[in-house]
Amino acid sequence: MFDVISLLKQRSKSSFVLDNNYVVFNFEFFAIHLKFESDIDIKNWNTFEMNYFNTIQIVEVRISDSEYLGDRLVQALEKNNFKSMSNLLLQLVKRITEINKIAITHYHLDTNYGYSSGDDAICQRAPNFIYLIYISLKIFCDKLFVENLLSIKLEQEFAYNFYLDTYFSGSALHDSKQLQILNTNTKARRLGYFKILANFLREKARIPVTKINSSFEKYCIKFNDQIQNYKNVKGLVQVTRTGNSAKPYIQIASDLNFIKNVSGMQSAGKHFKVYQILRDENEFNIFFLNTLDKMFFTESFLRTDYFYIVLILEMIYVGFADNYLELRNNFQSFLQERINNLIQAINRRNNQKDLTDLKIIMERVKMWSNAPVYLEHVLMPRLNWLYDLDIILMDQQQHLELTEGGVKYLKNFNFWNDINSGYIYNSNEFVRKFFVHTFETANHLKEPKMAIYDTVYLKLENYVEESFHHFRTLAPNRVTASQAISYAKYKLYINDNICTSDLFIENFLLSNHNKRFVYKYQKQFGDGYIQKIQ
Fold first, then answer.
1. CA distances from residue 240 to 219, 228, 237, 334, 353 in whole angstroms, order as listed
2. Which pTM was predicted?
């Protein structure tokens, strides 16, 4: 071990003893912390005696970097971009995994973790946002591994401009703490069936709950030739006596709010109606997704299933899941580690009311008695959805890889972590504020151009006006706000390549720039209405 410590001391920019039994070695891209079983003798550290270091035991190795959150205001004033701790973390984890697949025992992001909170705290004015990567002691004893580790160079990922105001504001995007996880079934794999459902519910506006499964199965028969010509035929809906083939799709459609149940009758949900109106049915194969399809389904999953989706993307990116079997074998422990990190972070903030969902999910995960079988229902639907959306690549041998767009999505989600200085497990406010811009950067791999506001406002008013022809309420001269906002947002992007957000449109409707409509939000309904000014 002395050879390894000697290498660290020689190659580091600086090193020092911290808290008596920690030694910190600073390098260009990260720091390496060694924790010893007993206090370090400073004299022996300064003289660096071989015999001494061969007699003391290392009990922990971790790699770290940090951002002092008090500097964000300074960066904003100096118009600097920000250091993405989340992207640096995953980039480094990926590089270490390439050197040795099992070198990392666990890793996480946190705020001020490992620093004292008393009078001698390292920072009193603001916390640090840091990452920590824990390395296997056995593997760290290998000098060749350490040499390869020290040769790693990281590339900084600079955030897109549309994130900067929120990042430099120093305020987290607060949202419901409800964990976003869908209840899935392995048979519901093809997103094209939700497109078919949109057609089905347009033709049959209302259908009894007791009949929808079997009726939908029969409706899907005419599309069987099309799925045979698609890139993957898994998840095929067939006619059954009980309707069980369609049941998983109908259940997920209900959980996604694509359909609603009123007095035993099923019909299209509010946002699914927007998708129905905007859908172009002139397509050679309904299972291939166009821009609108990808946009709508991606937003829907980020609103309802963000937590698992991001975990899967992360595991594939860093090399913990090069294929389905690795993903299945590692997912349970990875999920437990992430939930445990979130619980610890919330405990440190003394915000006990946010812990309920996390503790419930943790207990469920621990009780997975036959995890390989259960995880097929968790993982296979999501992998196929991501495959349909061109976010991942998956071949017949079930090898997994992120597409270029998938990498861009993950980097954007990391910027979301940076804004809140920690892991995001409910993304609704981020989706409301950033989704269209995130979609643009991931699918066209460039930063959206800024549009002239007067042009946006004029087009926006016209699209809100159009929404009155498609979505009516019982009250005259009114439209449901969420439908009109979604309709205008999608039309601006699809027709005009203009990126906006729900929040931008809401602010416009409340501003002096809006001369044609009144917008009222009704908290008790979680929605509102838009009314024309007579």
1. 12, 19, 9, 38, 45
2. 0.93
